[in-house]
Amino acid sequence: MNIKELIKAAKEASARSYSPYSRYKVGAALLTKNGKIHTGTNIENASFPAGMCAERVALFEAIKNGDDQFEALAIYAEGENFPFPCGICRQVIAEFTSDLKIIIAKSEDDYVIKNISELLPDTFDFSV
Prior knowledge:
Largest sheet: 5 strands, mixed
CATH topology: Cytidine Deaminase, domain 2
Number of strands: 5
Structural class: alpha+beta
Oligomer: single chain
Radius of gyration: 14 Å
Distance between the termini: 34 Å
Order of helices and strands: HEEHEHEEH
Strand content: 15-25%
């Protein structure tokens, strides 16, 4: 896995963001274990709960295409702070994997890597 290439794919996705309200353009790139990259961007709506985060767009795209084995997820947004995933995205990611590496980036050279279990240590599990 080339971290910089995955961040670059997330950055390119962020350019397609529809974010007229927040003006916070987020991109995500999800690398599957078979080497495919699925991208997503945040899409806002005037009815705020109707929007969708970049991470879930990429994840749902992968699932829709039959890819459900994941290697890493890069999340990119320009700004002062790292674009950590929201709580809903953390729970959705945890639904599909407990060991996903998440690269949280402000640039190709300024990033942190976390595991989903670090970001959401006590996931909700309906099967319990």
